[in-house]
């Protein structure tokens, strides 16, 4: 058993303590994968048949890596393990037992796109508005129900769920769920969520099947247990009920996937289900320096809901964490790019040693542009480069077509976006007519009645009128006002705003960030030309570099913090540490949400091996306006003995000498870290009869109600720019500036 010699004492205990319920609380960087691997190898070396061991992971990559490690210790026997993701392992059981549920054993598995397509067809068949009932929104609602073990019958019988749907103006979601479930059953198909939902149903309704697998699976091991949902936990609890040889491995401090259905109470309350539980804490961190480990500990101890542990390291003390202050988000990008270059040169590092982490994808724009200016290669992980994202290319295509009506590529991209009833066959007719008559596509569009005719002529005429209107706006307005009018008038902004899925919110933020970039372009006092054409020319020069197909692995990594979980880098930069950005404004309505945000910050910190840099900006463009920013409360959570203000912050040559920012930088009036205690807020839940008012008559001094922020008073109306805005002081959430074209407000007399 030579593999035991490489483990510390708690790790050895975790490997050898194989019988009975066991929970391994594995701190960041504590070698949990090695422990889990050796525990399985140890079971096999003791004579346990691999066919009797089930090991569940969250990714195929993790399962493959673990199986390969086990093979190195015990040989090819490792191939006989029940090892894989929850979905793959339970699909294996369902293939063998599907007939009990009246499914064929060769049932089809629908992927997410298949499911959304079926839901889209059902919405159309039921005659429902596909703008109110977006397939992705309905799919996510059904998925959340299944992961909470709520069948379509339970859903329709649940007054609270039905009430929520009604208040969100989607009262028929339950009916769609029923139709979707029955349609899948009739087609002999299961979606991803069904692989879990139907496994639970199988074990619940067919005890002889459950009994068979309870005796076949003698040992169960679950990785990343803090990320399990209710359905996953119920299944493994049923399987382990007879022998109770269940080992779960996880870290409550790294539970950051509640938006995907992960339930942190599974790990926090595990001991309630297993009173004889053996708890082993893996607390030695092998990844990071002492300063980084201690700083992370000082942050996470602020959370109330947690399992106590004391993560420590025998690594070197290391450098203090550096805090970078920037005047603006663009300046933040420049400072980080400069810092990366300097660190690389001074310490003979590779660019691949660096990662920049941000809370939302839209923040990558300023970082990307700064890296490009310094010719630093980078890669965006888990997403596209900012200007390659679909929603950005869609809006840019509208702008380009407005400026150049001969642009066929842009025409094809936007003609039916958002959908306006112009199908592919109609587009083909338009192109053929232009070619046959040797005229431009725009000329064909202007004479749609003659060239196309039929039902398509009307929406084409509307499209032409819209583009003409945009052209007038471009002539008389600056780039920002024209771009905002195009984003709003095209319907793109509203379509993205109404998509409340996680992906939809991210796309909406990205479009807002593009508008912010245009506003910065317009506000630059050194620019002579502030029109949309000048901005598009600059963007074309920037995005031309996106065509680089360089396979060089030596690149700076850019990613969201959620994508970084499980990874580690030598040098880590966490950017945008400002109130309402990180923590996110959407995560301030309850203690549970705020504590999840703090865990996300903890995950970001613990990705760092040698150096950690934190940054925030004093100003940032949000919704087209320059906003003053407050440093994140999370900076105040860090014990200040582990942090220092970087000398790499903005030089005063970039700041007007008499500005408030220059004064704050020179005199230190603005504190390095905000000492303001977190506001005590409670979640507001709008009543079921909440109906937004027409805000055309909204005036200063009026009392209003918002479905998320509750009651407040209108302090100021703003009619500048392309849209009406209201500054409202809410009783529990402070001042918020809302766009009235989108905000849902109920006016109270």
Give the biggest sheet: 8 strands, mixed
Mean pLDDT: 85
Shape: globular
What portion of the residues fall into strands of 2 or more residues?
Answer: 5-15%
Your description of this structure?
The chain is an alpha/beta fold and 749 residues long. The N and C termini lie far apart (77 Å).
Key attributes of the depicted protein:
749 residues; single chain; 31 helices; 6-stranded parallel sheet; 45% helix; alpha/beta; 8-stranded mixed sheet
Short description, anyone?
The protein is an alpha/beta fold and 749 residues long.
Explain the layout of strands and helices.
Blueprint: H1 9-16, E1 22-26, H2 32-45, E2 53-57, H3 60-74, E3 82-85, H4 86-97, E4 108-110, H5 112-125, H6 135-147, H7 152-157, H8 159-167, H9 173-186, E5 189-191, H10 192-205, H11 207-216, E6 219-222, H12 230-239, E7 246-250, H13 265-268, H14 270-273, E8 278-282, H15 290-300, E9 321-328, H16 329-347, E10 354-358, H17 364-373, E11 378-380, H18 390-403, H19 408-414, H20 424-436, H21 441-446, H22 448-451, H23 457-476, H24 479-489, H25 492-498, H26 502-523, H27 532-543, E12 556-560, H28 561-564, E13 569-574, H29 591-605, E14 608-622, E15 625-628, H30 633-637, E16 643-645, H31 660-667, E17 703-706, E18 710-718, E19 725-730, E20 734-739, E21 746-748
Parallel strand pairs: 1-7, 1-8, 2-3, 2-6, 4-5, 6-7, 9-14, 9-16, 10-12, 10-13, 11-12, 13-14
Antiparallel strand pairs: 14-15, 17-18, 17-21, 18-19, 19-20
Helix pairs in contact: 1-2, 2-3, 4-10, 5-6, 10-11, 10-12, 15-29, 16-17, 18-19, 23-24, 24-26, 24-27, 25-26
């Amino acid at each position: 058993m030579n593999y035991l010699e490489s483990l510390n004492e708690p790790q050895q205990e975790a490997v050898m303590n194989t019988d009975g319920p066991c929970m391994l609380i594995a701190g960041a960087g504590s070698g949990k994968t090695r422990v889990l691997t050796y525990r399985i190898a140890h079971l096999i070396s003791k004579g346990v048949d691999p066919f009797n061991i089930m090991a569940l992971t969250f990714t195929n990559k993790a399962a493959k890596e673990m199986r390969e490690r086990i093979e190195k210790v015990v040989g090819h026997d490792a191939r006989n393990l029940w090892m894989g993701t929850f979905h793959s392992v339970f699909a294996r059981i369902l293939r063998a037992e599907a007939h009990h549920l009246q499914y064929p054993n060769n049932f089809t598995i629908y992927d997410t796109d298949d499911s959304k397509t079926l839901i889209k067809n059902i919405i159309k068949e039921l005659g429902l508005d596909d703008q109110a009932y977006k397939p992705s929104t309905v799919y996510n609602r059904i998925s959340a129900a299944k992961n909470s073990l709520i069948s379509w019958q339970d859903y329709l019988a649940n007054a609270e769920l039905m009430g929520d749907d009604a208040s969100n103006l989607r009262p028929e979601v339950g009916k769609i769920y029923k139709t979707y479930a029955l349609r899948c059953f009739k087609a002999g198909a299961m979606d991803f969520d069904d692989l879990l939902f139907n496994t639970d149903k199988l074990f619940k309704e067919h005890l002889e099947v459950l009994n068979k697998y309870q005796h076949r699976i003698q040992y169960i091991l679950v990785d990343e247990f803090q990320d399990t949902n209710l359905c996953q936990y119920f299944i493994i609890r049923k399987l382990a009920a007879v022998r109770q040889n269940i080992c779960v491995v996880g870290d409550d401090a790294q539970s950051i996937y509640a938006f995907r259905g992960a339930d942190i109470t599974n790990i926090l309350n595990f001991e309630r289900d297993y009173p004889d539980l053996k708890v082993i804490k893996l607390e030695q961190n092998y990844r990071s320096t002492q300063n980084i480990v201690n700083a992370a500990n000082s942050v996470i101890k602020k959370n109330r809901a947690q399992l106590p542990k004391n993560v420590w390291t025998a690594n070197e003390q290391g450098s203090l964490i550096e805090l970078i202050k920037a005047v603006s988000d663009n300046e933040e990008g420049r400072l980080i790019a400069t810092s990366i270059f300097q660190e690389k040169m001074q310490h003979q590092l590779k660019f691949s040693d660096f990662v920049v982490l941000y809370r939302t994808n839209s923040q990558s724009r300023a970082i990307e542009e700064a890296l490009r200016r310094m010719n630093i290669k980078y890669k965006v992980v888990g997403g596209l480069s900012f200007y390659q994202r679909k929603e950005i290319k869609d809006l840019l295509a509208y702008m380009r077509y407005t400026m150049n009506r001969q642009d066929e590529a842009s025409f094809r991209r936007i003609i039916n976006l958002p959908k306006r009833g112009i199908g592919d066959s109609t587009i083909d007719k338009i192109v053929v007519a232009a070619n046959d008559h040797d005229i431009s596509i725009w000329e064909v569009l202007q004479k749609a009645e003659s060239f196309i005719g039929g039902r398509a002529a009307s929406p084409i005429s509307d499209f032409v009128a819209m583009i003409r209107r945009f052209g007038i706006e471009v002539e008389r307005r600056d780039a920002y006002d024209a771009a905002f009018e195009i984003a709003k008038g095209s319907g793109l902004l509203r379509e993205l705003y109404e998509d409340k899925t996680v992906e939809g919110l991210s796309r909406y933020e990205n479009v807002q960030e593009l508008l912010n970039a245009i506003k910065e372009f317009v506000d630059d006092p050194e620019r002579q030309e502030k029109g949309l054409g000048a901005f598009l020319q600059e963007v074309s020069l920037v995005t031309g570099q996106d065509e680089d197909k360089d396979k060089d692995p030596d690149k700076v990594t850019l990613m969201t913090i959620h994508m970084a979980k499980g990874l580690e880098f030598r040098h880590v930069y966490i950017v945008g540490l400002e109130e309402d950005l990180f923590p996110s404004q959407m995560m301030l309505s309850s203690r549970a949400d705020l504590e999840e945000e703090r865990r996300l910050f903890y995950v970001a910190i613990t990705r760092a091996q040698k150096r950690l840099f934190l940054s925030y900006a004093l100003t940032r463009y949000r919704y087209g306006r320059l906003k003053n920013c407050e440093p994140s409360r999370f900076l105040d959570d860090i014990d200040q003995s582990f942090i220092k203000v970087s000398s790499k912050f903005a030089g005063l040559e970039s700041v007007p000498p008499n500005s408030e920012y220059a004064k704050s930088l020179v005199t230190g009036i603005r504190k390095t870290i905000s000492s303001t205690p977190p506001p005590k807020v409670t979640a507001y839940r709008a009543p079921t009869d909440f109906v937004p008012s027409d805000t055309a008559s909204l005036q200063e001094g009026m009392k209003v109600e918002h479905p998320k922020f509750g009651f407040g008073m209108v302090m100021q109306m703003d009619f500048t720019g392309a849209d009406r805005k209201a500054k409202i002081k809410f009783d529990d959430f402070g001042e918020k500036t809302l766009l009235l074209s989108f905000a849902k407000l109920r006016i109270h007399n």
